[in-house]
Amino acid sequence: MHIPEGLIPAQQAAAWYVPAVSFVGVGLVGLKRRLVVKPELRPLIGLMGAFVFLISLIPLPVPGLGTVSHPCGTPMAAILLGPFTATVLGSVALFLQSLFFAHGGITSWGANVIAMAVGGSFSAYGVFRVSRRAGLGIGVAAGMAGLIGDLVTYGITSFQLALALHGDEAVLNVWGAAFASFLPTQVPLAIAEALFTAGVVVFIANQRAELLEGAVVRP
Amino acid sequence: MTAISRNSDGYAWGDSFLSRIDPRVKIAGFAGLLLVNLLGGSYLVSGVIAVAMALLMIAGRIPYRRQLLMISFPASFAIFTIISQTVFMGGEVFASLGPFDLHLQGLFNGLFISLRIIAGGLIVVVLGVTTPINRLCQALRWFKAPATFIEITQLTYRYLFDIHGEFSRMRDAQQVRLGWSSARAGLASSRLLGGSLFLRVYDRGLRSSEAMRCRGSGPVVNGALPRPGKLDILAGSGAAIFISALVMLAVGVAA
Question: Is B167 in the A-facing interface, judged by CB distances under 8 Å?
Fold first, then answer.
């Protein structure tokens, strides 16, 4: 769920742009350094961006509602590539999706980057690392990362919507109401994203374990 | 997945007057419109922008099915906005729905924000549909956007279509094997699809990298945009006059 063009007021749109540009900027600086040292990563990063874009278009059935939704993709990207690179790829995907599908927008790009690219990537990466250090298996850790990354993304989006649309109500009340209204679809979706992320990471670990060591993909 | 092909910049390469306008002029004009739409603060300003964009789409002969498809997402959000504002915004209560009071001022505010969403969505749609991605990236580079961001955007766009075919083939094969016949099967198929796609993407990336290094290829961003022509000056002047009129309209409405 991306916030569309025109929904959030100008001041808030500008305010969300500041941290978004900061995170993407740091990610770009790191990525630029990587590409200088390892230019062979260039097409790989581009392909990963396309991969994140496509993954976020895979329809997953939402049980009981007769509809489909899609994974965020950024939790898995953060596990495989690191949170800053995943943030950059998420921001590029959001930019292209706003142009191709009118999903999201240009003035709401900052808010969407904070929710999906930054929130989804960093929370998922943090959960994955902590879970691994706690001795959990790679599948469980990836699944928890997917679950938390998805819920954090929607928690932030709900907060952004509440901030923009709270009217005369307290922001926290509207936030709670907005998040609760998304729960019927979001909890199954978060579980689906957890299973999906765990499944993909375990598949990669079984097929090509060296990719998860960080030698090439996460230098 | 066909939506990607439908929404790619195939139309943008056509011989429409909208496609021929210099992307720098379009970016500057549409950025101005987006700002006026956000800051205008009235039904009138957003309404005029929405009508103008709709007329541009008709004049540019953008297929109406594409227009409807692309505007469907902002439209669905507009409905959500009307409902949330009617419930949460204060003012006169005109009806009750279970535990919720429905407020008249909220309804009007929701309608206003919805109009702003539709107008903003239409601006982005016109920009996206009529500008090839490479020219858009060249123009963004001219506006001093970070080179690495532009490069990743171009590479992502390029490889999006590179792996699109592979993705579709794998998914079609899964469908033939009833891989998406139930929620459980769909989840298993999506796991397999995601993992296989990642590995193929990785291998293809390495091969592409080797090929690029052999050719001595560097960063993708290259080539300068031509000098603006008569059409660009005309379009830029028209956009400046239109935006100025909208600003005056917004100030007039506010006063």
Answer: yes
